[in-house]
Write a structure and sequence with these properties.
single chain; 381 residues; Histidine-containing Protein, Chain: A; rod-shaped; disordered C terminus
Length: 381
Amino acid sequence: MGGERRQLDELRRRLDACGLTPDELAERLPEAIALCNSRNGELARALSPTVRNAIGESARRDPQELATAVAPAIGPAIRQAAGAMLSRNTSRLAWLILVPLLLFVAATALLVRSNLLWSRAIETLEQAPGIVVISADRGWRSLRLTGLRDPLAADPSALLAARGLDTSAIEARWEPYVSMQAPLVLERARRLLAAPSGVTLAMSGDTLEARGGASRRWRERTSAIGSMLPGLSHVDLSGVADAAPGELDAAARQRQEIRVLFPPGSDSLAARGRAATDSLAAQLLRLRAAAVREGYGMSVVLVGRADSLGATTTRLALSSRRAEAVRAALVGAGIPSTDIEVEALGSTDPLPVKDDQTGARINRSVSVVVSVSDAQSERSP
């Protein structure tokens, strides 16, 4: 070894002197080792344990990197060895050596690929929110997994199948637990708090931030129980305003297009007026039920009018009786009397129309004004 050591020392001195980069050193060092080995096989025998240990460590640490590194060399090495053996006249001996070599290389490639697939499978599970892999014992053709899984986490079998693994060869046992990872904390809050459609939720650290519009009842409930949810220390509701859901507002506006018409000088509901009142009552009952589910209350104002015939006091009294007639019909259909108010205008604020004849008919009517608002704020003094 004395001669080789002197040559390596000389090589090191020359490399230091010329200032080679690590990449350049990596290219030239194998050449130097090969040169020494061609003269004396002792260097190869001395380095063999070190190289073998390094390859084993690479296979355990990152099989993909090892496979990438050796794959380009395997094919040429086999071809070179096969060509050298078959070029001789010892064909039988060549095949006795070549066949086991090919089988060994094929088995090694399969093993590396298998290790890579299983490694990626474990990595996929470990990166999924709400899944904790405690142990992974691999057999020849199977994998036994144990760990923890949040009920809201993705299905581990589906994740592995998406990676191209045969899940029938995987035996898994997952114990339930509650994950504190932000995506699952957020999903749990969405389900338990049942935020209305106008509210968006987001995580900021361990704080749940809500933005949009919601009823006071929802805000109070969320404030009371939100910070009790696992993974949350605070719920920020500063961005939530008092607002009825858009579908309730739209439904309330549609009801305002309904008018109940009366005959001239009469406060009795004719057949047409009765049909309009029945339709209005059915729509208001549905709207009220939807508002109550969202924590809102509904209020109805019936505005009675009259045409321009007769004295002012007569017209005012007639418009009041018309509004009361509609109110009585709505209460009889199930609308709470506390939800309905009556306003009589007589002919002081007529509805705009194109001609006097149409105006007289339209203004012998009761109009409806429907609003939806926070139920608790309405009861507050």
